[in-house]
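Weekly modeling sync, notes
Attendees: S.R. (lead), two postdocs, one rotation student

Agenda item 3: backlog of single-chain predictions. S.R. asked that every request posted to the team notebook include the full sequence so nobody has to chase files. The rotation student volunteered to paste the first one in as an example of the format we agreed on. Action items at the bottom.

Example entry:
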Amino acid sequence: MTRLAAFQRVVSQYADIADFLVVYIEEAHPSDGWVSSDAPYQIPKHRCLEDRLRAAQLMLAEVPGSNVVVDNMDNSSNAAYGAYFERLYIVRDERVVYQGGRGPEGYRISELRNWLEQYRSDCGAMTFLLCG
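Predicted structure, as returned to the notebook:
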């Protein structure tokens, strides 16, 4: 959640060429587990889908203009996209055309911005996916 402000700026800047989707996966730093000292919220480990939905509401408030969905309790989206802790993707015509590195070290919003800027001249339909 600490990178959502930069993500929100990208959403605003490229809303004319991309649809943005946030997939909320399992909590990387649950308050009853491996706690992060810079975590803006205290979210315990999700024990059921309702817990995950409640936590995702916090993320939804941070990224207005984006759609937020939640991974299931089997974490199948997380597994399919290798998203743990966070990861950026661009999906175009049902194909992954950009796969960012795994966060936190590999999460580079600047790479995403550069890709979108380069693509802007083509103005094609695209869906952007963030797992995190």
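Discussion: group reviewed the output briefly. The two ends are 8 Å apart (CA to CA).
Action items: rotation student to repeat for the remaining queue; S.R. to check formatting next week.
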